[in-house]
Amino acid sequence: MQPDVAVIAFDTSAAHCAAALLLGKEVITRVDEMAKGQAEHLIPMLEEMLTEGGVAWKDIDGIGVGTGPGNFTGIRIGISAARGLSLGLGKPAIGVSGFEARAFGSTPPLTAIIPAPRDKAYVQFFKADGEVSKPALMGQEFLPALVSPPAPVKLITAVAKIAAQKLDDKVERPAPLYVRSPDAAPPSDPAPVILA
Questions:
Q1: Three-state DSSP string of the chain
Q2: What pLDDT score does 77 carry?
Q3: For residues 15 and 2, what is the distance between their CA atoms, to the nearest angstrom?
Q4: Is residue 175 part of a domain?
Q5: Residue 107, Cβ neighbours under 10 Å: how many?
Q6: What are all long-range contacts of 105-111, with beta carbons under 8 Å and residues at least 24 apart?
Q7: What percent of the chain has pLDDT over 70?
Q8: Which structural domain range is residue 76 located in?
Q9: pTM for the full model?
Q10: Do the domain assignments include residue 142?
Q11: Chain-wide mean pLDDT for the chain?
Q12: Is residue 141 part of a domain?
């Protein structure tokens, strides 16, 4: 990682719009709680943060984005925005999973746990030898560990710092991390016939 990088990071995979602007060692964060409306809210929020930090879009070295798991629509909003900004600015977009953000700064072995619908949990194990398990949807046995989940500010700060560390790496463009199937499914009835 370069010493004075500028990275903007955001996550819309939960009921919030969370963003961090990393400027060297300084981090500006903002978390706006919202159940919906992230798509309209995200870019103006990022522009306000850039203004607060005294930098322009052209000054950004990279974009970090939370890839989930979490809300399907929210994940797609964040990743689409990151890919669009990356293309428009000619800067790398780096995806960071919620598991990586929770494990950031900790020494393995550890278990990263994210709340999931219906009293379940998304779980990933980080082993002492550096091996990382495949993310899984687990039952209620992991929920007691979520008594004090990490604050969104801590998580979005981790997304920005991880993205900054990966700036010099060759990374694939961000992709959603879905651990479970979506709740909605396409209709099973055939599409209506359109008569001309």
A1: CCCCCEEEEEECCCCEEEEEEEECCEEEEEEEECCCCHHHHHHHHHHHHHHHHCCCHHHCCEEEEECCCCCHHHHHHHHHHHHHHHHHHCCCEEEECHHHHHHCCCCCCEEEEEEECCCEEEEEEECCCCCECCCEEECHHHHHHHCCCCCHHHHHHHHHHHHHHCCCCCCCCCCCCCCCCCCCCCCCCCCCCCCC
A2: 97
A3: 33
A4: no
A5: 8
A6: 105/158, 111/142, 111/145
A7: 90
A8: 6-106+149-165
A9: 0.89
A10: no
A11: 91
A12: no
The angle formed by the CA atoms of residues 70, 74 and 78, to the nearest 5 degrees, is 110
| Structural domain count, the chain | 1
Strands 6-11 and 62-66: parallel
**Is 14 inside a domain boundary?**
yes
Residue 125 is predicted with a pLDDT of 94
Q: Please identify which residue in the block is written with the tokens 């009293």.
A: 119
Q: How far apart are CA 1 and CA 138, in angstroms?
A: 35
- pLDDT tens digit sequence for 84-129: 999 999 999 999 999 999 999 999 999 899 988 888 889 999 999 9
Query: Among 8, 12, 13, 127, which residue's Cα sits nearest to residue 60?
Result: 8
CATH number, residue 160 = 3.30.420.40
Q: What's the confidence (pLDDT) of residue 118?
A: 87
